[in-house]
Amino acid sequence: MRILVADDDPQLVRALRVTLAARGYEVIAASDGAAAVALAAQSPPDLVLLDLGMPHLDGVEVIHALRGWMTAPIIVVSGRTASADKIEALDAGADDYVTKPFQIDELFARIRALVRRIGTPENAPAVSFGDVVVDLSAKAVFRSGERVHLTPTEWRMLEFLARNPGALVTRQTLLKEIWGSEQVADSGYLRLYVSQLRKKLEADPSRPRHLLTESGMGYRLVIAPDDA
Questions:
Q1: Using one digit for the tens of pLDDT, what is the confidence trace for 83-98?
Q2: So where are the chain's domains?
Q3: Per-chain mean pLDDT for the chain
Q4: What is the pLDDT of residue 153?
Q5: Is the pLDDT at 25 greater than 60, yes or no?
Q6: For 177, which of 27, 94, 128, 184 is 20 to 30 Å away at the CA?
Q7: Which of 143, 165, 141, 136 is nearest to 223 (CA)?
Q8: Buried/exposed 129-152: b ≥16 CB within 10 Å, e otherwise
Q9: 126-227 adopts what CATH topology?
Q10: For 67, what's the count of Cα atoms within 13 Å in the CB-facing half-sphere?
Q11: Is the whole model's pTM more than 0.85, yes or no?
Q12: Who's near 43: CB < 8 A, 6+ residues apart?
């Protein structure tokens, strides 16, 4: 698996190159945004680790450029902690956001989650987590072998999360997917439907292990929490 590391911090790039290589990944690196886009076109990566504050092209511009032709997951690794920066990057097409400084084990957990997403194509027949099976082809949900009744809106939300397991899905994306417009005001609707899904699918809805909230950003379906 080839990972493109795009960051203008040579020490971080060197550390990531050594650590990723030790885990069996092939690493290619770029020190500025323009070089990252060119390198991705020359040697298409399976996953991108991308800083936001780079010369020539900043990280968001790189995301826009890559998303014009590339579907590989993009994890932003940045020292910017403001929600506005995170939302801008995610809305541009990033799949996840890790704040510097970070624990290397957390980064690898995020990589594994997105690798699982790569292995779940659009026509995947089923996604499983805990004692729940989401049959995407039959549009049915089962828990401990018993069918679970979901409302149409609950199903649309769960289906979208299940087709993107491990990935952070922004509120804006869910609003567009479910109601057809990014302009629809949330007004607590998403929290309500996630709460209902947790009651129906989580062993302990007050302490969810699979349907997780990313504060200020969106939601994530974790299908194998023990790996994280």
A1: 889 889 988 889 889 9
A2: 2-118, 126-227
A3: 87
A4: 84
A5: yes
A6: 128
A7: 165
A8: bbebbbbbeeeebbeeeeebebee
A9: Arc Repressor Mutant, subunit A (1.10.10)
A10: 16
A11: no
A12: 2, 4, 28
pLDDT classification of 109: cutoffs 50, 70, 90: confident
Question: What six digits make up the tokens of 144?
Answer: 């401990």
Q: Judging by DSSP bridges, how do beta strands 168-170 and 218-221 pair with one another?
A: antiparallel
State the virtual CA torsion across 36, 39, 43, 44 in degrees, nearest 10.
30
Q: Interior CA angle at 39 toward 35 and 43, to 5°?
A: 175
Q: Using N-to-C axis directions, what is the helix angle for 171-179 and 152-162, rounded to 10°?
A: 130
Tokens read off for 10: 């040579």
CATH architecture of 2-118: 3-Layer(aba) Sandwich (3.40)
